[in-house]
Known about the structure:
- It is built from 13 helices and 2 strands.
- By secondary structure, the protein is mainly alpha-helical.
- The chain has a domain at about 1-120 and about 150-250.
- The protein has a two-stranded antiparallel ribbon.
- α10 runs antiparallel to α11.
- The longest helix is centred in the first third of the chain and has 31 residues, at about 1-30.
Amino acid sequence: xxxxxxxxxxxxxxxxxxxxxxxxxxxxxxxxxxxxxxxxxxxxxxxxxxxxxxxxxxxxxxxxxxxxxxxxxxxxxxxxxxxxxxxxxxxxxxxxxxxxxxxxxxxxxxxxxxxxxxxxxxxxxxxxxxxxxxxxxxxxxxxxxxxxxxxxxxxxxxxxxxxxxxxxxxxxxxxxxxxxxxxxxxxxxxxxxxxxxxxxxxxxxxxxxxxxxxxxxxxxxxxxxxxxxxxxxxxxxxxxxxxxxxxxxxxxxxxxxxxxxxxxxxxxxxxxxxxxxxxxxxxxxxxxxxxxxxxxxxxxxxxxxxxxxxxxxxxxxxxxxxxxxxxx
Length: 328
């Protein structure tokens, strides 16, 4: 059963990474045509909210009480993990190179390892540390951070996006409040769309649209086809599959598996946009996958055995059961 759940979780995690990674190639023609990043993000999240509205309600059996009981988890997930990540990332790339912002944002798995280390005061297993080093080395090769002057505020904003990604993985793993993955994703993008819309109305984030035909899959298509594609596939499906993968695999492995997004982004850009992949990027992709495999070999923490198990009789109805703790 655990092996089957692991395989399903890995497949869902890779599918989520592919969907997220493909979003960049779909959105790029919109940005090149004159769309502002804020407008593109707002519409993709809004489409995702519409797509997931009915399925989310059906998963809850049209009972919103679980969402209310988990209101703080839902609110933090929506504002930080959905809207906050998008706003912080796009604000950062206005000040620093995109590659540098991506590199900082995708340090989230390492940040989670460091946080678990500090919280438990136990060093991660050697395979986790090795996987972290190998995966980040691959990330550097794939993204290739640009040189030049570094804006401190841009670095801080990219760091905020990185923390938002970490929150996405931590909250996505919480299955103890009765909120199904699709309902959490639906509420997240719904509230996130409201937050992003308010930033546009107040002028905090510029919204600029160009309603014309765009390059798409080797031809041209109306702008709304691209928006529907990125909203339904690269947002709605990606969030649902990602949350389910987190709950099946745990925060740590799922976060490293999320690094596959940058590999898929390069492959999709190569296929759809003709952006060639160099030898160093290929090596980086192999290293990222190698890091994921190493983290997959992490041994589960052993449960402590009570010393008094042979001395104290267990009374019916007073037994306890424990689940292995996720060190992530």
